[in-house]
Design brief:
This protein is of the alpha+beta class. 32% of the residues lie in helices and 11% in strands. A two-stranded antiparallel sheet has the order 1-2. The longest helix has 10 residues. The chain binds zinc ion (ZN) (2 copies).
Length: 95
């Protein structure tokens, strides 16, 4: 199985680095989910509210038109596919 993250285009390695995202938030009766990296997923939710996601940004294509997402993708593409921790505010939660 070689799943690819629709956001950054890197490989998805099954495990803690992979997350499921509702393209339309659950609270808006969204059913369709897509797999993407945990970092990519976190980024989406840190940039956009559920309202925005349910509105104009309910497709990956729409998300990719956003400049902040584009900058993030440029950055995350240099990371190994299993990378998911250590975003700026990693705090003291380390293993
Ligand atoms: Zn990704
Ligand atoms: Zn999500």
């Amino acid at each position: 199985m070689d799943e690819i993250c629709p956001l950054c285009g890197r490989e998805l390695i099954p495990g803690p680095s992979v997350d499921k995202h509702h393209l339309v938030p659950k609270s808006r009766k969204g059913k369709e989910t897509t797999l993407l990296h945990r970092v990519c997923h976190r980024k989406i939710h840190s940039l956009f509210t559920e309202k925005e996601l349910a509105g104009n940004l309910n497709t990956v294509e729409a998300l990719l038109e956003n400049e902040d997402i584009q900058n993030f993708v440029k950055w995350v593409r240099k990371k190994p596919p299993e990378f998911y921790d250590g975003t700026k505010t990693a705090r003291s939660k380390r293993r």
